[in-house]
Amino acid sequence: MTCIKLRRALSDHTMEDINFELSEDGRKATVTCPSKTKSVYTISKDLSGFIFYDIVVDKGKMPDALSGKFSSIAKAKRALEVYLGGTKESLAVRRDKIGARVMKEMEDESKANAKGN
Length: 117
What we know:
Largest sheet: 4 strands, antiparallel
Low-confidence stretches: 1-10
Strand order of the largest sheet: 1-2-3-4
Order of helices and strands: HEEEEHH
Number of domains: 2
Oligomer: single chain
Mean pLDDT: 83
Shape: elongated
Structural class: alpha+beta
Radius of gyration: 19 Å
Helix content: 40-55%
């Protein structure tokens, strides 16, 4: 993705719930988005010795939109923001939300039954 396409895509999708943690030495970053996925994305220096950075995902297959080299951590972060802005919630996140909702409904129902007796 070229810089121009990346800027256009960023103007369409903005994410507020992306957690970005930069390491103390500034060579590695960890990115999470709990509202969209349970995966953890790591931005780290490429092993080739050049200036490039790679994105690695801890679970599953690397998305095609993120497989490539980035010239800075900031550009890799922008690519992740665009990617996460355009994706739907993962099945694991949806399952957890539904489970939490069902548990809350069960608790409310048990409280109502306790008051009725």
